TrEMBL record:
Cofactor info, note text: Binds 1 FAD per dimer.
GO molecular function: electron transfer activity; flavin adenine dinucleotide binding
Species, as recorded: Celeribacter ethanolicus
Protein name stated in the entry: Electron transfer flavoprotein subunit alpha
Cofactor requirements of the protein: FAD
Electron transfer flavoprotein alpha/beta-subunit N-terminal domain segment(s): 3-182
Keywords from the UniProt entry: Electron transport, FAD, Flavoprotein, Transport
Coiled coil: none
Example of a GO biological process term: fatty acid beta-oxidation using acyl-CoA dehydrogenase
InterPro entries: DHS-like_NAD/FAD-binding_dom (IPR029035), ETF_a/b_N (IPR014730), ETF_a/FixB (IPR001308), ETF_alpha_N (IPR033947), ETF_asu_C (IPR014731), ETF_asu_C_CS (IPR018206), Rossmann-like_a/b/a_fold (IPR014729)
Superkingdom of this protein's organism: Bacteria
Function: The electron transfer flavoprotein serves as a specific electron acceptor for other dehydrogenases. It transfers the electrons to the main respiratory chain via ETF-ubiquinone oxidoreductase (ETF dehydrogenase).
Length: 310
């Protein structure tokens, strides 16, 4: 059994999503190789080589791979696929862009958003916005998987894998080009990798109140800020803060939901958080069904008080 893990990185640093997907790969069993597709990516490759349980790190560098455009990345993976039984990537924006293309080119099915490895060919994945868990057996000769990394601990360091270069095929590299990357500047941790998230819902009532109430608590905790879709749609919070089925899927150590009812579409994005605290005036709000700690009361009193106590 040989497994190829398509790494998430920005050439200079390796994302911890790769270390988490490596844990999933190790649970499948077999030799795990990490593929670093990039440009001037030796730092990311060195970091990958230090992860425990990696056989070798393959590095492919070209202009088209600088930001891992889907067409060039898929052509690269397909050129290596013959040596592997399983190809996987974290279910990130990049992974979700590249692997379906790989599966199509290999004419196999993709198993998306794996949350548990049952065996080398059988996996669990959420369906119906996380309301049911499907057990999928993949019978294709090559398994193509994206892994929801929230369910896997990051693999540790201690490895010393060999690093070798592979050729990046030219196919696909002229089909798309990178224009620009506009990142929202923030001092805060990024939502999907934050250890603590303070999230606000419709109850906040306005953008001013959202910033006045949610931001100080997030600042005090060094937390990322999240929001329900109702809060985003109403303009209280920016789009990229939305947590849920159509927003981001998060699993921090601590998720504090303030004035969020707990609709299934919101729960789909945060219910794997390790500890959930809910603040809501309605003691029957569904959010309390997933909360470890619930405070029934007015968030406009409780959140500032919590911040003062901290
Ligand atoms: P509400 O449901 O209106 O809840 C507000 C809560 O605040 C209530 O429970 C109320 O008791 C409480 N409250 C009121 N005043 C106070 C106060 N002073 N102090 C404390 N509590 C108070 N939603 C998402 O969040 N993310 C998604 O990705 C998402 N995707 C969706 C996709 C689809 C296809 C659909 C149909 C819906 C989606 N939704 C999503 C919307 C979802 O169904 C809910 O409408 C939304 O999550 C509700 O947001 P909310 O909890 O902020 O608002």
């Amino acid at each position: 059994m040989a497994i190829l893990l398509f790494a998430e990185h920005d050439n200079a640093t390796l994302s911890d999503q790769t270390a988490k997907a490596l844990t999933a790969a190790s649970q499948i069993g077999g030799d795990v190789d990490i593929l670093i597709a990039g440009k001037d990516a030796s730092a990311a490759a060195d970091a990958a080589a230090k992860l425990a349980g990696v056989r070798k790190v393959l590095v492919a560098e070209s202009d088209a791979l600088t930001v891992r455009l889907a067409e060039a990345s898929a052509a690269l993976i397909v050129s290596l696929a013959g040596d592997y039984d399983t190809i996987l990537a974290p279910a990130t924006t990049t992974g979700k862009n590249v692997l379906p293309r790989v599966a199509a080119l290999l004419d196999v099915m993709q198993v998306s958003e794996v949350i548990e490895v049952v065996s080398a060919d059988t996996f669990k994945r959420p369906i119906y916005a996380g309301n049911a868990i499907e057990v999928v057996q993949a019978t294709d000769a090559t398994k193509v998987l994206t892994v929801r990394t929230a369910g896997f601990a990051a693999a540790g360091e201690g490895g010393s894998a060999t690093v070798s270069s592979v050729d990046a095929p030219s196919e696909g590299s002229d089909l798309s080009s990178f224009v620009q990357n506009i990142l929202s500047e923030s001092e805060r941790p990024e939502l999907t990798s934050a250890k603590i998230i303070v999230s606000g819902g419709r109850a906040l009532g306005s953008n001013e109140k959202f910033n006045e109430v949610i931001t100080p608590l997030a600042d005090k905790l060094g937390a990322a800020v999240g929001a329900s879709r109702a809060a985003v749609d109403a303009g209280y919070a920016a789009n990229d803060l939305q947590v849920g089925q159509t927003g981001k899927v998060v699993a921090p150590d601590l998720y504090i939901a303030c004035g969020i009812s707990g609709a299934i579409q919101h729960l789909a994005g945060m219910k794997d958080s390790k500890i959930i605290v809910a603040i809501n005036t309605d003691g029957d709000a569904p959010i309390f069904q997933v909360a470890d700690y619930g405070i029934v009361g007015d968030l406009f009193e409780i959140v500032p008080e919590l911040e003062r106590q901290l």
